[in-house]
Amino acid sequence: MKKKVKFTYKETTEDSNKNEKEKSSLKKSSTDIKAMFSQRILAFLIDLVLLSMITSLITMFIPVNSTATKLYEEQNQVLEGYVDGTVSMEEYVNQMVDLSYDISKQTVIVSIVSIVISLLYYVVYPCYNNGQTFGKKLMKIKIKKTDDKELTMNDLLIRSMINNSILVNIIIVALVLFLGKDLYLSTSSLLSGIQYLVLIISLMMIAFTKNAQGLHDKVVNTEVVVVDTVKEDVLCTSGN
To answer: What tens digit of pLDDT does each residue of 64-74 get?
Structure first.
């Protein structure tokens, strides 16, 4: 009789654990609906436009030295000359490339401030806003860990370094400070090309793979899902 009772208890416990796992699996599959490709693209574009506006409004108050002002004027003159036909295509490209380097050299502070603003927008803001930027909030999607662990600030930092060109921008600022014009131009062009390639690959992965994860998602094990109907107030942490 005792053996029978013991066997029955064990069987009940196993069934209970199995049922809990099934409920958990069903709950996850019912809530974690992958964000549509169109939602992610629209959110990305909204964030890009909004961040550009914010950056322009803030950096316009940073004083620009007289050298940079003259360089901007020369840039406008070259553009006008190209439009009028007095400057050939080759001359236009060469002069604009040289002027762009000189302007970058004179506006390093503006570039650094722009990077800081990007970090605040793509890392700090979503960290304390349920994994959402403003664009993702409008599209009703959010970033989350694939294993349902807590989303950390480190996750968002690495993710944005890859996806939002922050790492490339930091390297380019360092290059303009320490490299000569020719080496800077060739290296920065190569980095920009790599960044565009990463974005294209990520878009292809999001559009055509089952898990809809870009390279940035794969690296930190995140995914973008539709926000649950139940409101969540999630604060991420600064550690892993």
So the answer is: 777 778 878 87
If you search the block for the tokens 């996806």, which residue do you land on? 163
Distance between CA 118 and CA 83 in Å, rounded?
34
DSSP 165-213: SHHHHHHHHHHHHHS-HHHHHHHHHHHHHHHHHHHHHHHHHHHHSTT--
Q: What is the Cα–Cα distance from 110 to 123, expressed in whole angstroms?
A: 20
Q: What is the pLDDT of residues 75-100, one digit of tens each?
A: 788 787 778 777 778 777 777 878 88
Question: Angle CA(97)–CA(102)–CA(108) in degrees, nearest 5?
Answer: 120
Could you give the 3-state DSSP secondary structure of residue 62?
coil
Three-state DSSP at 34 gives strand
Domain boundaries, the chain: 37-64+107-226
